[in-house]
Write a structure and sequence with these properties.
Layout lengths: L2 H12 L9 H12 L5 E3 H6 L4 H9 L4 E4 L2 E3 L9 H9 L17 E2 L1 H8 L9 E5 L10 E5 L7 E4 L2 E4 L1 H11 L4 H13 L5 H6 L1 H6 L7 H16 L6 H4 L6 H6 L1
Parallel strand pairs: 5-6
Antiparallel strand pairs: 1-3, 2-3, 4-5, 7-8
Length: 260
């Protein structure tokens, strides 16, 4: 059921205990329309941009026709809770006047990253450690549980997941590996989980200099690889097909090495 339908049903059921102003149904419909496209959420700034004053938003909250998630971000009643609720609310709060849809074409979006991205991808079971976001520009949050990293993320290093820009599984692993917050065994378990669930090809792990440095067991021995490549090239120069054991890519054993 949509956020708008849920909100209006809740509103109708509350008439018996609330004295409603003439404008309240219009205000409720306006914010519910916003929430319908944003996981059941809306911001005070978005509501104001659509003609709903802050005082009316506060009135909706007092009458339990909206629920305050954090300063400036609210959720419609009846919307099921989600483990990603805090992440979505804090992401909306980084640019509260614009809707999630309006932010879709941002050239440098604020991106969900680190432990928060791992949670959304379903990688491992790391404690969330608050909400982690990444931005190319300097941003700050007043919330102590929100960390906004200042980094550059290329277009190929994030995907849109249910309306949120989220670092790819590989970039997520790389950021966590470089953070210094986790032991090697925890990173290894994360990488294994990502490969096992098909989130990352084993070859991507081997190709990542960051992961190869932190998890050296993923990389094939350099001398072995170099020797195999030299023998393979030599065979081709002589017009002979390389033997099968030389054609086998060093990437083929990445998953086996990860499980060892």
């Amino acid at each position: 059921m949509s956020a708008l339908v849920l909100a209006l049903a809740y509103f109708n059921s509350s008439l018996r205990c609330n004295i409603c102003s003439m404008d309240q149904p219009d205000a409720l419909e306006a914010v519910a329309s916003l929430a319908e496209r944003q996981w059941g959420m809306f911001t005070t700034a978005q509501a104001e941009a659509r003609g709903v004053p802050r005082t009316d938003v506060a009135r909706l909250v007092r009458r339990e026709l909206a629920r305050r998630l954090r300063h400036g971000v609210h959720m419609m009643p009846g919307v099921p809770s989600s483990p990603f609720e805090d992440i979505r609310a804090e992401w909306l709060a980084t640019d509260p006047a614009r809707t999630a849809g309006e932010r879709r074409d941002d050239p440098e979006p604020v991106i969900v990253s680190d432990e928060s991205a791992a949670l959304i991808h379903g990688m491992g079971d790391l404690p969330p450690g608050g909400v982690h976001l990444t931005s190319a520009r300097r941003l700050q949050s007043r919330q102590q549980w929100v960390t906004i990293h200042r980094r550059h993320v290329t277009d190929r290093e994030y995907d849109w997941v249910d309306g949120l820009p989220v670092t790819t599984p590989r970039r997520t692993l790389e950021d966590l590996a470089e953070s210094g917050r986790w032991e090697q065994s925890q990173l290894r378990a994360l990488a294994h989980d990502a490969v096992t669930h098909g989130l990352i090809p084993a070859s991507d792990l081997v190709k990542s200099p960051t992961l190869a440095r932190v998890l050296p067991e993923l990389a094939a021995p350099a001398s072995h690889t170099a020797l195999r490549q030299r023998l393979s090239n030599d065979a081709r120069e002589r017009g002979v097909d390389p033997p099968e054991n030389l054609r086998r890519s060093p990437l083929d054993g990445a998953q086996e090495r990860l499980q060892a």
